[in-house]
Structures are given as structure tokens and as C-alpha cells.
Amino acid sequence: MITASSSTTSAIDPGTVALTLPLNTPAAEVWRALTDPTLIARWFGTLNGALALGQRARLDFGDGDFFDLETLRCDPPQLLEYSWRFLGIGPLDTITWHIAPLGSGCLVTVLDSEPGRTYQSARELKEGWLDFTQRLEHFLATGQPSRYDWRREFDGSIELAGESSVIWETLFEPANQARWLPLRSGVLKEGELLFVGDSGEPALVRIADVRWEPPTRVRFQVTHRGWLQSTHCDVKLSAHAEGSMLSISHVGWEGISRDDSRQLRQRTRFCAQWITALQRARQLIG
Length: 286
Fold this sequence. Notes:
The protein is of the alpha+beta class. It has helices at residues 27-35, 37-43, 119-142, 164-171, 177-180, 260-285, and strands at residues 8-10, 16-23, 46-47, 56-60, 66-75, 79-86, 92-102, 105-113, 154-160, 193-195, 204-213, 217-223, 231-240, 243-251. The chain folds into two domains: 8-142, 2-Layer Sandwich (Alpha-D-Glucose-1,6-Bisphosphate, Chain A, domain 4); 154-285, Alpha-D-Glucose-1,6-Bisphosphate, Chain A, domain 4, CATH 3.30.530.20.
């Protein structure tokens, strides 16, 4: 596994995370683990197409999360670069893998860059890349699957054009809330029903404990009589690059049931619902 002595991380600039690790694996084998869909599925996610120059593909994690990506550079076995958007709507990131021979193994460096990303966001993202590269290293060392089963938190974001305070007024104007949020009667308030627009159950859940913090966030609980505990939503709006970033976080899935498959099913349903809400927010803002 990766330790402080075997890997380093740094923010090259406020929008880039860099992580470098030595591996006791030949460069050609590492390249296959990064590009072969069969191998990628064992440590990362399910890739629905080949990583070939100019080609688009989706990296799916099986819990509602995915990246839509496009291969930008492909020079085996030393350089792989692709752009991706989380959930197909997030900011456009560029991921670059460098593989350099080192003795009988190689030195792998991964860069994740995004214009407008803050230094604090880069620090938080570093933890995710440490996890991914630990899984890669474990798979290469053992040949055993190291992919996680599903992520217990949902978080999605979309970039919006305009000043955040103005966007807040537009999004949360009472007449506009139901134009992007799936609200039954149209206003985000205590006791309001939230509609989950698919064929699954429950179709309606209840909103509780709404806490407004304008013009930056609103928090609320989402609950259902068939759940053991409520889940928690946090909708945030912040300045980002030359515009704003709208983010939705929804957590607490492990508390709704003792059945792991039921937790996953609801998490996946709401992931799709929140992606639609974020897309509608962008349409509303124009």
C-alpha cells in the first residue's frame, strides 16, 4: 500500500493535484492496468469503451457515479491523458498518467488539473487519488480485485454562469424552485414532498428540518416512513472561476436500512435525480 515514503502529493498550482509513486511492476503491465477495460474493472470502474485517441467512453462505478471521458493523448506505455466530467455535468478535468521505467519497475505520476479549482479543493481531491492509486498498487501487486463496492456519499456539482448572489435569488425564488428541484407542491419547506422521477419506490419522500443560510446554502433532511433514519442534503452555491458552482451533497444512506442492497438502490436512484436537478438549474440560469 502507499505510504508517506513511497508516494508524494502536491498542488502544482491551485487547480492541479499531482501524485507520484514507485511500483515494482514493469511499465507495460501498468499501461495495461490503466487502459484495458477488463483490468480497469478490477481496481477502478467499468469502462464501456476503449481508451483510444479521440474516443469517448464512460467509467461507471455501479452506484450512480460515473465519469464521461475523452482520450486526448495516448502514447504507450509512457503517456495517457484524458479529460473527464464527473456525472457528465461537473467541471472539465484533465487526467494525465506518466509512466517512466525505474529499475525492474516504473515510476507512475498522475496529474489532475482543473482551471478554477481552489487549493483547498485540490487538497480534498488528493485523498480520493490516494485511494485510487492504493487500489491500483494493490491490484498490480496481488492480482486480486481492489475496487470499492459503492460510495456511501453522493456529491455532484455543475458550473453556472453569473454571480452567485444573483444566481441564488433566481434559483430560490419561490416561483422557480420547482423548475429545477423535484418538489411536489413547488416550495422547499418543512413537510414538502420530493418526487423521485423513476419507476422505483418510494416515489415520494418527505423534506424536514430545512435550514436556510442565504446566499450560500440550504440544508434539509429527506425521510420516508419505511426508512430507519433520515438522510441529509446540503445544497451549496459558491463563486468558481469566472462564475459560480452549484453543488448538492446527499449522505446517510447506510442508516436507512440494514440491507446493504437497499441502501445502494436508493443512493443510485437519488444520484440520477440530483443530476437532473443540476441540469435543470443550469437551464434555468441559462
